[in-house]
Design goal:
Helix content is about 10%, strand content about 45%. A hairpin with a 2-residue loop joins strand 7 and strand 8. The protein starts with 11 loop residues before the first strand and ends with a strand. By secondary structure, it is mostly beta strands. A 13-stranded antiparallel sheet has the order 1-2-6-7-8-5-12-15-14-13-11-10-9. The protein has a two-stranded antiparallel sheet with strand order 3-4. Helix 1 packs antiparallel against helix 2. The chain has two domains: about 100 residues, Beta Barrel (Porin); about 130 residues, Roll (Thiol Ester Dehydrase, Chain A), CATH 3.10.129.
Length: about 260
């Protein structure tokens, strides 16, 4: 299993090997006017307990965001693994505060060692991270989740950026590159919509799917996002996350509710 060390988003174990709990504090929260557990952290926490409970690395996970958990609350995470095969476990996690369901995650964990590998997503030629402009955080709350990450915008050549953004992301705390950390980074996809449209938006995630290709240590993560469409008040798109060496680490995809602030 790849993720053997507990991380800042790792839920705490209980006497029940299939139940965990996560106290929600400012370090896991985002939001300007109302603070809440970041959806990506909720997915990361579920991924973390799935890998721990099944003793297998994540293949894919998809989260359906149902409600919010505020700082000061405690999220319980219940793991179910209805199918355990020789190489793959099909599982799910229900995260809830009391009787209120917050996030439901369906996933598969496992690996098939010794099989051929291939990568068909190429890393673009881009400036080095320190040669790019720093992106301001989504909120300015000291000690909040966004203060844990540094993001730097990578410009596109003029005329070729429609619906697309690129940025470098790194953990200022030096967090290891795990499936859970990639789930958090992938959740920054909706924040790129304002850059694509040239208008400030406030967006809410409906879902987040993470497909893990290959884990590799990397200080900076190269995130290439594409908004594929927007209609009826919703938007859709995907993000490729690559290492500094150009290795494809994961692909995220999301649907979101779009709100224009102006």
């Amino acid at each position: 299993m790849q993720n053997s060390e507990l991380q800042f988003f790792s839920p705490k174990a209980t006497h029940n090997p299939l139940r965990f709990y996560l106290p929600v504090d400012e370090a896991l929260s985002v939001g300007r006017d109302r603070r809440f557990l970041m959806g990506g952290v909720g997915l990361a926490a579920a991924v973390d307990v799935l890998e721990r409970a099944t003793s297998r690395p994540l293949v894919w996970a998809t989260a359906q965001y149902l409600s919010f958990a505020q700082p000061g609350s405690v999220v319980d995470l219940d793991v179910r693994a209805p199918v355990v095969g020789n190489h793959v476990t099909q599982a799910r996690v229900v995260s809830h505060v009391g009787e209120k369901e917050i996030i439901t995650v369906n996933a598969a964990t496992g690996e098939r060692a010794g099989q051929p590998q291939a990568q068909f997503v190429s890393a673009p030629a881009v400036p080095k991270p320190l040669d790019c402009d720093v992106l301001p955080p989504h909120d300015e709350v000291p000690g909040g989740l966004n203060a844990r990450f540094e993001r730097r915008q990578i410009p596109y050549p003029e005329g070729s950026s429609e619906g697309r953004t690129r940025m470098w992301v790194r953990s200022l705390a030096g967090d290891a590159v795990t499936s859970g950390l990639l789930a958090i980074v992938a959740d920054y996809f909706l924040g790129t919509l304002s850059q694509c449209l040239g208008r400030e938006t406030h967006n809410s995630s409906l879902d987040n799917t993470l497909r893990v290709h290959l884990l590799e240590d990397s200080e900076w993560l190269l995130c290439e996002s594409r908004v594929t469409g927007m209609a009826n008040g919703f938007c859709y798109g995907e993000m490729h996350i690559l290492s500094e060496r150009g290795t494809l680490l994961a692909t995220g995809s999301q649907s979101g509710i779009v709100r224009f602030l102006d």
